[in-house]
UniProtKB/TrEMBL annotation:
Name used for this protein in its record: HEAT repeat domain-containing protein
Entries under Pfam families matching the protein: HEAT_2, HEAT_EZ, HEAT_PBS
UniProt-listed Gene3D superfamilies: Leucine-rich Repeat Variant
Lineage of origin: Archaea, Methanobacteriati, Methanobacteriota, Methanomada group, Methanobacteria
GO molecular function terms attached to this record: oxidoreductase activity
Organism of derivation: Methanobacterium veterum
UniProt-listed InterPro entries: ARM-like (IPR011989), ARM-type_fold (IPR016024), Armadillo (IPR000225), PBS_lyase_HEAT (IPR004155)
Length: 449
């Protein structure tokens, strides 16, 4: 162990972004200081810390006598995941064998965030780890990487004893999009856990064409739960081949005997938006059950609004948005616009800050990321791209302090001395359902310069 003489002030080093000072603190004789230094470097995200963090990540025999060193290693793994430098891949793969399970699962998370194919086989092996948390993050990481080699093992993970693992295995299979998973995902529609069932629906919805016919066949399944979830998945896919089968279970002598299934069929028809469904939906307004009638009314309203795309334009900014969303212009100079989705499950705002000075677009994004971390929000992904000569940064996080976790997405960019950022917040399921609406707002957002 290296011996430090003067205890470093980690808060001050972090506030002044003294990366070299924090790197030095990684070798201080107090292991708690090392942990705090690693956490500060994670927040700052400076590439100069890459090799010092790799060194800290490696297990050494003397760590056995200092329990806090496990926390130091796990924080280093997280920090390396934030840096997303491929030179950290091999050390992180080695860390998948760490004796501390939190180090293993944070190394798995980091490898998923980096997205290097070298991690695929080690992560597949990790799906058999004794810790369900490790297995869960291994499944999630494999989904982020998106390599087809993981499909068979992820299918096997759909039968894991822990619902967390099954949930993220289904999510990963949806991201990979391999049709080999369709049958197993359809079986997962009957999982005992609601989160797993929903992820299976979302995953099948991402598979588009290859999943349509098998899901249509499931509309005849003897289990009404499965019939309802199949209808829901077909609505997410939006393929018009499903219109007639869905109509047949909504009205007429072939209609499904279960009100829940009929309601899901109505909901799906509303999402698909085919005019052929208008007359059957109108007929279904006479359904004897209020649940079905409410779903029919919502479907008809959605179809009416689907063709209505409105434009907000105040001379400074403009964007398109669905007619079903509420958009309000404010007198607040910083929060230009606020609004919400039709059902209120997604809230959003468009904001402007004139006090960013000489900060670069990347430094502004780093500041937003720091706010996420200070608020104990988990960062799920970070991306950046260039559009029309402007650097655009997107951060997606999750507020884990809420009873029901809230997903947050912030898209930021700087024009001259002005910072603009679009902020969206809502439940995970609501985000999935409103993806096209959110994309409409983002893709058509313009600032008049």
């Amino acid at each position: 162990m290296a011996i430090g003489k003067i205890k470093p002030n980690i808060d001050r080093l972090e506030k002044t972004r003294d990366v070299e000072g924090l790197i030095s603190a990684l070798k201080f004789n107090d292991c708690n200081i090392r942990k705090e230094a690693a956490a500060a470097l994670k927040k700052i995200g400076d590439s100069r810390a890459l090799f010092p963090l790799i060194d800290v990540l490696e297990y050494k025999e003397w760590h056995e006598y200092y329990a806090v060193m496990g926390s130091v290693r796990e924080t280093a793994a997280e920090a390396l995941g934030v840096l997303r430098d491929r030179r950290a891949v091999e050390p992180l793969i080695k860390a998948l064998n760490d004796k501390d399970e939190e180090v293993r699962w944070k190394a798995a998370w980091a490898l998923g965030n980096i997205g290097d194919m070298r991690a695929v086989d080690p992560l597949i092996y990790l799906l058999h780890d004794k810790s369900w948390a490790v297995r869960r993050f291994a499944a999630s990481a494999l989904g982020k990487i998106g390599d087809g080699r993981a499909v068979d093992s992820l299918i096997e993970a759909l039968s894991d004893d822990e619902w967390h693992v099954r949930k993220y295995a289904a999510d990963a299979l949806g991201k990979i999009g391999d049709e080999r998973a369709i049958e197993s995902l359809m079986d997962a529609l009957n999982d005992e856990d609601n989160d797993v069932r929903w992820k299976a629906v979302v995953a099948l919805g991402k598979m588009k064409n290859v999943a349509v016919e098998p899901l249509i066949d499931l509309l005849k399944n003897e289990d009404w739960h499965i019939r309802g979830r199949a209808a829901e998945a077909l609505g997410r896919i939006g393929d018009k081949r499903a219109v007639k089968p869905l109509i047949s279970i909504l009205v007429g002598w072939t209609k499904d005997r279960n009100k829940y299934v009929r309601g899901r069929a109505a909901e799906a028809l509303g999402k698909i938006g085919d005019e052929e469904a208008l007359k059957p939906l109108t007929q279904a307004l006479d359904d004897p059950y209020i649940y079905v009638r409410v779903k029919v009314e919502e479907a008809l309203k959605e179809m009416e609004n689907a063709t209505q795309i409105l434009t907000y334009d105040d001379g400074e900014i403009s964007f398109d948005y669905p007619g079903s969303w509420e958009v309000i212009s404010t007198a607040n100079k910083k929060k230009i616009v606020k609004g919400n989705s039709a059902n209120g499950n997604i809230t959003f705002s468009i904001n402007k800050n004139t006090n960013v000075g000489d900060l670069t677009s990347k430094e502004v994004a780093d500041t937003i990321r720091d706010v996420f971390i200070i608020q104990n929000s988990t960062i799920l992904s970070e991306t950046e791209f260039r559009a029309e000569g402007i650097d655009v940064h997107t951060i997606i996080g999750e507020n884990v302090n809420d009873i029901a976790p809230t997903k947050i997405m912030v898209i930021s960019f700087k024009i001259d001395d002005l910072l603009y950022y679009l902020w969206f917040s809502g439940g995970h399921e609501s985000f999935e359902r409103a993806k096209e609406d959110i994309d409409l707002i983002i893709d058509n957002f313009r600032v008049y310069i």
